[in-house]
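Many introductory courses stop at the sequence. We go one step further.
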Amino acid sequence: MRKTAVPALLALALAAALPAHAAKPAASPARALHDRMLVLDTHLDTPLNLGRPGWSIVDDHRDEGPFSQVDYPRMVEGGLDGGFWVIYTGQGDRSPESNRRTRDEALGRLLQIREMVARHPDKFELALTADDARRIKAAGRKVVFISMENASPLAADPSLLSFFHAQGLRMLGITHIGNNEFGDSSNPREGEGAEWGGLSPAGKALVAEANRLGIVLDQSHSSDAVFDDLIALSKVPFVLSHSSADAVHDNPRNIDDERLRRLAAHGGVIQVNALGAYLVDTPVIPERQAALRALYEEAEAKGGRSPEVLRELARKREEIDRRYPVAEATFEDYMRHLLHILEVAGPDHVGIGADWDGGGGVAGLSDISQIPRITERLLQAGYTEQQVANIWGGNILRVLEQAQAYAAKVAASSK
């Protein structure tokens, strides 16, 4: 049963009854630690929202329900200091026309991220190095690293990677759903199967170029064979920016324990995903799927997903959930994956990449305002303050520093 809100006049009366000097309750030790740490998430799909009509990152969009999970007010509320803001493009049909469209879409998304930072310099700052992130946190602003999910925008011209790097790109995912010119996906499209047996020749060249530039490679969404190739070929550690544990829930997007151990031995980091279908078995209800498709089609028919349209969609989505209930992954399901991966890979090789605004979020961890719960549970599980700090930001920054140190060494040796 939903709780009934306290009437406004009653709330004012209760507030007036408090002593004028009454202080806010002190933060719990877990929350105080959470606020001191550099808290980063490695997969923020929020740039998908930046181009929506009337949508602003500085407004509170929580009444848009699952359609918006990250904005500046909730970053402050949840103690999220920033992370990797994603240039996402879906996988096209790989025709020259499709590759050009994908390239242009990625360039547009890059511009939107840069414009967000430029419009709100008091709240956001572009980060290019680990030291930048620490300095931005200390200055009270939010950290904006840029990543790319799916290298397809580079298919027509892989040399564009240098341009994206110059504009701030610091992490590169190789595939998404469906194979591409650079490698095999963990979720090839129907009828595809494995095409390259891991990385393609162009993919291997892309790995070498990313290493040369100091860009962190991201294996999430790529096949196990791509993982094996990255272990063999990458001169520096790589990451899985948003993946979960195959041993807890068998899914092609998840990673098995043997590879988790190899990732740790190679110095890499896995950031644990909070997308429900990768955490637990979520049965498909055809009627529910049809209702959801109709809902999204309705949004497009109304001219796009403005905040007003999204608020209406959120209400209708609740009606669909009531009409066709389905088992929903919970915070405890998420923690089972996180704690298992910590046990297997070790706390120096684990981070958080919940896939916010890209399908992530579970019951009890539905947006970034709730992420302090993770810190609290990690402390309860016996992890030290330093280990928790590494999980939230230290581990991914260490990988970035290693990638950039290698690039600097290569650049120095070529002079």
